[in-house]
Amino acid sequence: MSNRRTFAIISHPDAGKTTLTEKLLLQGGAIHLAGEVKARGQARRARSDWMKIEQQRGISVTSSVMTFEKDYDGETITFNLLDTPGHEDFSEDTYRTLTAVDSAVMVIDAAKGIEPQTRKLFEVCRLRNVPIITFVNKVDREGRDPFETLDEVADMLALDVSPQMWPIGMGGQFEGLLDFESGEVSRPEGPSKEFLGKRDSDPEIPEEWAEEAELAKVGYPEFDLDAYRSGDLTPVYFGSALKSFGVTELIDAIAKHAPPPRPQPAGDEQIAPGHDEVTGFIFKVQANMDPNHRDRIAFMRQVSGTFKRGMKLTPSGLGKPIAIHSPILFFAQDREIADTAEAGDIIGIPNHGTLRVGDTLSEKDAVRFTGLPNFAPEILRRVQLKDPTKTKQLRKALDDLSEEGVIQVFYPEIGAQHIVGVVGQLQLDVLISRLSAEYKVEAVLEASPFATARWLKGERKALDEFESFNRANLARDRDGDLVFMAKSPWDVNYQIEKNPELTFSATKER
Question: Which listed residue, 29, 102, 187, 369, has the most CB atoms within 10 A of its CB?
Answer without folding.
Answer: 369
